[in-house]
Amino acid sequence: MKKRIYTLIVTLVLTTAFVHAQTNKFYTTTGGEMIFSFASIDDAGSETGNIIRWSPVFNIQILGNYDFSKNVGFFTGFDIRNVGFIYGNYKPPTQESTVKKKFRNYTAGIPVGLKIGNLNKFFFYGGYEIEFPINYKEKTFENEVKTHKFNVWFSNRVPTVYHTFLVGIQFPYGGNLKFKYYLTNFHNKDFTETLSDGTQIKPYETLNANVFYFSLNFNLFRNADFYYTSEQKQKKAMVY
Fold first, then answer.
1. Pick from 95, 111, 226: which is nearest to 172 by CA?
2. Rounded to an integer, what is the distance from CA 136 to the centroid of its chain?
3. How many other C-beta atoms are found inside a 10 Å radius of the C-beta of residue 70?
4. What CATH number has the domain bearing residue 165?
5. Predicted model pTM
6. What 8-state DSSP symbol labels residue 76?
7. What is the Cα 138 distance to its own chain's centre?
8. What is the tens place of the pLDDT at every residue in 172-204?
9. Which of 21, 24, 80, 121 has the smallest set of CB atoms within 10 Å of its CB?
10. How many domains does the chain have?
11. Three-state DSSP class for 152?
């Protein structure tokens, strides 16, 4: 059922982009994203153990842009994102000592937002994005040694959707800085796991973690060729 919903949403977004691409004010852009993520953690009263996570791949963004004027525009699109966090003080329900955990999701997202400023050079943007977890991965480290890992497609260990908001700054020549916050808890706290002896546990019952990150984006709204081409045209106009 989840796969059908994801497929329908992606189809609708891409169809809308294709239909509107025929207008002069609508254009599409693609870009990469280098993510530095953290998490706001509250694990049964403990708020320590958060470690920065760097994920340069694979983060792909395809945006449809509609500019109402030179200073105001709208954007939506589709992206695939590698997002998660590292927690150094995770205490498994079945043991007394703590371990380090690396949690990761690949998600499919649909952003909706506004751009304000000089849309050909420097502007601010912000909006909302809904993300659908696709592939979940979890790694366990004890004394800096990896002891266990697994990944699951469309896992019940995480929510069906994430609700997020984003803000950012677009610089000339394709550079971009973005901040994003996940309003939804990273894990499904009600997820129940059955151990080999038949015991049932809820591994994330006490773990409250909201991911947030800063990212460097490249060619997200306009690529460098656009700016160079515009400047070249201006220089030619001055010559003639």
1. 226
2. 14
3. 11
4. 2.40.160
5. 0.81
6. E
7. 18
8. 887 899 999 999 999 999 999 998 888 899 999
9. 24
10. 1
11. strand
